Amino acid sequence: MTKSRLVAGLAPIAALVVACAGATNNTATDAGGSGGTSCNDIADSARKEVDAVIEAHRSCTQASDCKAVALSASCFDSCSRAMRADGEAEYTSARAKVDKTQCAQFTSQGCKLIVPPCAPPSPLTCTGGVCTN
């Protein structure tokens, strides 16, 4: 096998590895070039903010208390998570907030979102008092 064929054969695997990590273009900084926040830092900040809302609404007594939601916004995608359905308004508000703040900065810096391939979520359950999928 030639080196070029080997490299060409590995390209799809490398792309999948990057996508599974939910990677972003980490080289861009702020538009002024003054050493602003990296793309990964911005996306991680947004992810943590949305995930904190999901985590605050995970308790349950039965599976019907739970709902699957996307752990994502316009600057990150981490597939889906399970949360208590009554936290949906707070979750929606958190996503809208990060879209207007962190994700707007992410876009203005020229960062690129790579959406990971996500397996279909498992059925929702309430295991040990926690919503899971």
Short description:
The protein is an alpha+beta fold.
What does this structure look like?
The protein is built from four helices and four strands, in the order ααββααββ. The protein has helices at 3-20, 39-56, 88-100, 102-108; strands at residues 66-73, 76-84, 125-127, 130-132. α2 runs antiparallel to α3 and α2 runs antiparallel to α4 (102-108). It is of the alpha+beta class and 133 residues long. It has one domain (3-132). The strands form two sheets. The protein has a two-stranded antiparallel sheet. Strands 3-4 form a two-stranded antiparallel ribbon.
Topology of this structure?
Layout: H1 3-20, H2 39-56, E1 66-73, E2 76-84, H3 88-100, H4 102-108, E3 125-127, E4 130-132
Antiparallel strand pairs: 1-2, 3-4
Helix pairs in contact: 2-3, 2-4, 3-4
Key structural traits:
4 helices; alpha+beta; two-stranded antiparallel sheet; 133 residues
Query: What is the string of helix and strand elements?
Result: HHEEHHEE
Helix content: 40-55%
Number of helices, counting only DSSP H or I runs of 4 residues or more = 4
Report the end-to-end length measured between terminal Cα atoms. Answer: 43 Å
Shape: elongated
Question: What is the count of distinct domains?
Answer: 1
Major sheet details: 2 strands, antiparallel
CA-based gyration radius: 18 Å
Structural class by SSE content: alpha+beta
Detail the poorly predicted runs.
1-35
Proportion of beta-strand residues: 15-25%
Q: Please identify the oligomeric state.
A: single chain
Main β-sheet, spatial strand arrangement: 1-2
Question: What's the average pLDDT?
Answer: 79
Total count of strands = 4
